[in-house]
Specification:
Number of strands: 10
Number of helices: 4
Strand order of the largest sheet: 2-3-4-5-7-6
Structural class: alpha+beta
Radius of gyration: 24 Å
Distance between the termini: 74 Å
Strand content: 35-45%
Order of helices and strands: EEHEEEEEEHEEHH
Helix content: 10-25%
Largest sheet: 6 strands, mixed
Shape: elongated
């Protein structure tokens, strides 16, 4: 069975008004998208669908944790997810993505697949710089990796004196 089947919401039989859905987003979901920034985690999606005659408003609320790779030491750490997004789905003649928050789907559709939006929203909610959170003012990175990075940094500063770029520092552009 396709693990993404549960993310296809049948809206034709729903009455007008608000409807609530809950999804457990786990390893099956993350493995389906091979290029995900994270491979594991447990996130709960609370989805509120407000249906009217000519559109639907979808309110996504994500909460849980995902495992990220630290950009500094390449170790894994847990990142807390608490994210809210909104999507307006209008009915029209063909599929058109008007903006990041507004799409038009054909009026003849009976289901709406939210899996790609779930994937994108989770990725957009990740920090740009992924590093271990600080504990008592110190990053919780692997101390052995940090020690090696400091060794390379000190060697680089020592070799800066022999750099061919040093000659450019003596140029005066204020003539």
């Amino acid at each position: 069975m396709n693990p993404l089947q549960q993310y296809k919401i049948g809206f034709v039989g729903l009455s007008l008004g608000k409807h609530h859905f809950s999804f457990d987003i786990g390893p099956d979901f993350f493995l389906h998208f091979g290029d995900a920034a994270f491979e594991s985690g447990q996130v709960v999606l609370q989805l509120e669908l407000a249906k009217s005659n000519n559109m639907m408003e979808l309110y996504f609320h994500f909460s849980g944790e995902v495992q990220l790779v630290c950009d500094r030491c390449l170790g894994f750490f847990a990142h807390t997810v608490d994210l809210q997004k909104r999507l307006l789905v209008k009915f029209g003649e063909q599929f058109i993505e008007q903006s990041d928050e507004i799409i038009i789907i054909p009026a003849m559709e009976s289901h709406f697949d939210i899996s790609q939006y779930v994937y994108e929203y989770l990725h957009l909610g990740m920090p740009v710089r992924k590093v271990h959170p600080e504990e008592e003012g110190v990053a919780a990175c692997d101390p052995e990796v940090i020690k090696r990075l400091e060794q390379y940094r000190s060697k680089q500063h020592a070799s800066d004196d022999d750099s061919p770029w040093n000659a450019l520092k003596t140029l005066n552009f204020n003539n």
